[in-house]
Amino acid sequence: MDELKYPYIRVGTTYYKRIKKPLLSGDFLEILAPWSLEIIKQDYGRKWSEVFDEIPKFDGFTNIPAHSQYSRMHHGFYNKYEPLPCKPSPGSFTLIESFLKHLFQEQFTIALDYLTLLYQKPTEPLPILCLVSKERGTGKTTFLNLLKGMFGLNMTYNNNEDFRSVFNDSWVNKLIIAVDEVLLDRREDSERIKNLSTAKSYKAEAKGKSRVDIEFFGKFVLCSNNEEDFIKIDPVETRYWVRKVEPLEKSDPFMLERMKKEIPAFLHFLNSRKITSEKKTRMWFEEKLLETPALLKVKRRFRNKQETELLEIIQEIMDAFELEELHFTNKDAIEWLGSYNIRVTRSEVKGYLENWGLPSMDNSYNYTTYKYNSVGNLYEDHHKGRYYILKRSDLTNILMI
What we know:
The structure is a single chain. By secondary structure, the chain is of the alpha/beta class. It folds into 3 domains: 51 residues, no CATH class; 208 residues, P-loop containing nucleotide triphosphate hydrolases (Rossmann fold); 95 residues. 35% of the residues lie in helices and 21% in strands. The protein is built from 15 helices and 18 strands. The strands form 6 sheets. Strands 9-10-13-8-14 form a 5-stranded parallel β-sheet, with helices on both faces. A hairpin with a 2-residue loop joins strand 6 and strand 7. The termini are far apart.
């Protein structure tokens, strides 16, 4: 299919020419350009009927990611997912291995599982990988370029505004969506990426065309020189994997080119490698496997001040009465904060508690709560209501201690 005698295809009722667009890098980007049958006739003259007989015909477009068993045609549909630029072959990849160990350190095996899943199971949802560092020369951009060398046209580079644009047809059908120098500090930015990371379908929209539902399998890789607030991450969010990267020991301007030569061997390794971590969550990896100091740093940065104060009050109560489980209502939380002259609304407190994922009683029951007296001392009190249940283990996770 890829070795066409003539560079034309017909999809539905429209003809296309497969064109290789030259890039500054020296590579070529293959695109499908609409091409009229009349122009083909003009280009080939009397020979046009021979050309016409050789043009493959498809019922429509599809996008089926596959690497080890790639096919351009799927049941009469043209597969827009591209073949990888390199074919796997046995060999050594010591430089790639050393580079990945530098980036991922103690999480090197998890990184290999992540890359193995990308290659073997491209439709599997994976965590949003973020590489951050204030320092230069760490290898963040080199990692993106390495992924590009591995997955070719199935990876795209976005800028911050690409996510905010309603037109997404340039990236919504890619396997890897990478952003270098990311700064998506709006709440709607993080919500969009977070929701896309587990989405099975999404609406693709191009200028002048109607929105269409497509199957979505994209993975996000973000790099930033901002370690704390490049994106908003809620304290209980589990979809991010953030790593702080240290500078490389020595600069090598030819490292990427040397690693590119090892890609066929590395793909051969990924193709046969057994994934060591079991699938435990919708993002495959258990939350505790992905927890890093860099992730906790971002989470703490975006915690609401009133929420932080409420957590400290709750911790004080549980420590004072040596509680393993605390029962309290929305009203109790408002009164606790009010004791410190912090005013919040019921909806704000409800948002905090829902964000923590706390279970609540379906009906009103008697429970023991705790209050501050006029001099600031805590005492037990008894009430009836639909209370929330907070265990000490849950508090520990929420506080990220």
